[in-house]
Amino acid sequence: MKVNQDAHHLSIANLPPLPSTPSPGSHPVRSASQEGVNPNFATCHNPKIAQHRTAPPVQNSSSLEIESNHEKFANSIKKMAQSVKARILHLLTKIKVKTEQVKEKTFSNNDDYLPEELKVISDQKNQLSPGVLLILLKEYAKNNEKQLSDPYVATTLHKLYEHAAQGLMAEKKISFAFEARALASQIKFSDSHALHDFNKFTRSKFRFGQHFDEMDTSVVKGGNLQVWRRNAPSGDPIDVVHFKISRLARKDIQKNIHAIKNNEAAFRAALPPELKDVKFSIREVEHSFSPYDGKPGDTGYTPPGAKALEISFEGVGKVIIGNTKSYGALNNDVRIELSASNKPGEQLNSLHQMVSLLGFGPVASQQRPDDTERMKMAQLFHIYCPSQAIGFETNKAFYEAPVGELRAMIEAKVPAMKEHFKKYLDDQPELMKKVEIYPGKGMWSIDDLSAQMRAAGSYGLMSGVGGTPDQAALTIALMIGSGALSSQDRFEAGLFRKGASSATDLSTGGGDQVFTRNVTNAVSNKKISDFALCGTMQILYDVDVVNRGAYGYRGDRYGVRNPDKLGYYFYKNRDNLVDLSKKTRSFDTDNEIMVKNRIPPEFIRGVVVESKEAKAALLARLRSFNMVRTDSNGQELIMGKPIDDFIHIGNKFDKKMWEKPAVANT
Questions:
Q1: pLDDT digit string (tens) for 616-635?
Q2: Is 43 buried (19+), middle (13-18) or exposed (0-12) by CB count in 10 A?
Q3: Does 471 lie in the same domain as 432?
Q4: Domain count for the chain
Q5: Do residues 348 and 193 make contact, with C-beta atoms less than 8 angstroms apart?
Q6: Where do runs of H (alpha helix) occur along 403-463?
Q7: Could you give the C-alpha distances from 287 to 209, 283, 332, 493, in angstroms and in order?
Q8: How many CB atoms lie within 10 A of CB 414?
Q9: Which residues contact 105 (CB under 8 A, 6 or more apart)?
Q10: Of the residues 136, 156, 185, which one is the last residue of a structural domain?
Q11: Backbone phi, psi, residue 60, to 5°
Q12: What is the pTM of this model?
């Protein structure tokens, strides 16, 4: 990419000349004290502008007045920007030089992929008033069209538009916030974008959808999108995009929707031309899981009392957002329904426009190198110092601060993390790698975490499987075939078979987790029947599965992590998994470790049954599923292990039960 090395060029040279007096009633810039910066560094020292800082905000009551006020404010911002242009450029350049000097001494920010002028704007976004930032972004986009084809530039520009929009919202300049988001919605994606042609991947009938990784991570949890082509209740095909957002982002979205409902005329006025005549509505609906191949009359499953907000752009699509705080696993859940189309790029554009206008940010934009580093730091922080990480993840700096500054900030607040960051990010980066939960859905794995848990006393993980021996055998055969699934993953796939406490788990926030027990030295002498919910058979998982992230408790807390539940205290004050293994006591047979979404089949190490009859029932079921294979020596194997090393008869757990197969199962 060609980079403009001239830090003085910020693309506001073409603004109109400053008239003799500024436009009255405008708020072009906040004071230095309001901005939280040194007064010597404020963006405006013009007394003519300063005298208008305390004027009342513009009130929008009609489309005509909106347009008039919009023009006044925009003109005022332009006049101010022209007046202080030289000072802004001088200060930004001066600040940038100082920032670079500090970076060399203390940390580095991985942002060299950006053109110089956009990097300066991004670095100094918090020092500019939202109005000035919006002007700079508009001019940058206008004068650098070729650069916008770079996905990293597009992602950064979109983030900055949303940053300006949030600042304008805080200043009660709602119509200008809507304008910033409308401009973001006009950013175009190239034909090489992974979601450009939905038809290429929605033809697949993979029940768990197609997964796309490395999308925006400041809003989308894990940077993962899940896409299906399903049938709507009407029977018509629709494309569904599913993802989760951070709890901080969920609060912002609620504010945005509230602002849209209370300023609908301004919102409509800001819509891009192709959406001007589209019918728009917001209503509350039941939060339901749809059948996989829905037919008219199919209702799917609705957790009791679960509600969602449905924002409809008629003929374009719907955005459905969980709206029941008491359902922790659903309140930050987002499902977007798009009319199925054979025209490449159409669904991607519709998805991008709707989420941008609602203030989600660059949901479908490509993750940048510094976003990747941020995710790795977040994973390490959550794994090793989970209780301290809670306070950071509810702070916008966690998502917006340059990665070098974020690392320095975390190390200053939690000195223990300095050692972990050094080990995994500097000295032994090969210990962190991407692994897949589903094909296409990746998470950062810490490869030696399980070894630390074993050293702390962990044998492995187990889950009880209930029902009669025949029923349990069928369930285990299905788990060996597709992995162990969380309640929410099953429901999203149209599999409405409930677990031991599915509705409760959705409420506590653990509904998207697979529940397991940690079998350690301390509890190994207990009878299997002493373990809570031990079931008829017990399926055994390699503790390696926690390397990609998990959390747990010494007692059964239903996987609680919903801030609106009393049990959230346990989540906020939980131990990391290594300490949890050390602290597990002999009577902690109801301990739990939650593994996100799915445990793939390759982590299954065996099954424990209580009798020869139960073993025969399980073996017969596995044979019927063609899961018993014969090697070149004529030995029968299940998941790469001899039958007797895979199916164990006993009433206690033994460490040998979790041994890996001699040859990896293929």
A1: 999 999 999 999 999 999 99
A2: buried
A3: no
A4: 4
A5: yes
A6: 403-413, 416-421, 449-455
A7: 19, 12, 12, 15
A8: 18
A9: none
A10: 185
A11: -100, 120
A12: 0.83
